[in-house]
């Protein structure tokens, strides 16, 4: 898919809106930054006159507009009813983020986007709401609401992706599950969730880039692929294990640090929920891996579609070098 040069302008204003929301000293300025971010992302969704893109853009606009309305209304009441208004702002930011129990819109919109657009939705679009949530966590009540939302996100992300066959929906539920780890990290300190967000963004983006270049949108698309090089058929399965947090891949590094810190803070019950949900998410990652591992034999392949593109060869060193960093230096990270 080719992108017009004019979309560079919308991408820059999207980044500008995120920075404005993060650095604003008032909720009104943060609201303006979130609105600029929203109005910049809508043109990036509607690249073509496609009903799927148009439907996703309309759904995204309605949900984000509802959350923005709650933010500006609650910020006006912050002097009259501080506990109620801050709780409403937190709920609105969780709605913008797509965290449970307000996650219903996220998989539906992900299904109507292309892979480059899903990268923006899974990474950059989550940055400003998460920063604003981290600013809010100054009271015990708001922290408990965030931990509850994180536990619900872990359960919803794990159970929601069990019987799903569409790859974009699987990545959406995976994003909801990883959001639970970042929300828990927010309740501890800011450095932890930024570290986890950095690792998650790179790993999920590398997998989405891989799916984009092989043009895979459904599990059945993976059954029809045939690669002449085993390196291609091994890169995605091992990257999925890294996203699932299986040691000693790179995705295990932030989870290992989070496990240690949660034990030190005696957060045993949330840790049990997160680990149990991570085990379930590994199951639907393994479902994606089976076609790559078992059905790459030409004798078992149902149809030979095409060989890997040269564009993927350009991104392959990036995908391999980051996702397999834990394999190269396992003892350094385990001893942290």
Number of strand elements: 0
Individual helix count: 17
Class per helix and strand makeup: mainly alpha
Largest sheet at a glance? none
* Contiguous uncertain segments of 5+ residues: 301-310
Helix content: over 70%
Count of the domains: 1
Outline type: globular
Instruction: Return the string of H and E elements.
Output: HHHHHHHHHHHHHHHHH
For the record, give the distance between the C-alpha atoms at the N and C termini, rounded to a whole number.
Answer: 42 Å
Mean pLDDT, as a whole number? 84
- Any idea what the radius of gyration is? 20 Å
Percent of residues in β-strands: under 5%
Quaternary state reads single chain
Q: How would you briefly describe this protein structure?
A:
With 336 residues, this protein is mainly α.
Structure description:
- It is built from 17 helices and no strands.
- It is an all-alpha fold.
- It has one domain.
- α6 (115-122) packs antiparallel against α10 and α10 runs antiparallel to α15 (310-323).
- The radius of gyration is 20 Å and the shape is globular.
- The model is unreliable at 301-310 (pLDDT under 50).
- This is NADH-ubiquinone oxidoreductase chain 2.
- It catalyses: a ubiquinone + NADH + 5 H(+)(in) = a ubiquinol + NAD(+) + 4 H(+)(out).
- It is a multi-pass membrane protein.
- GO terms for molecular function: NADH dehydrogenase (ubiquinone) activity.
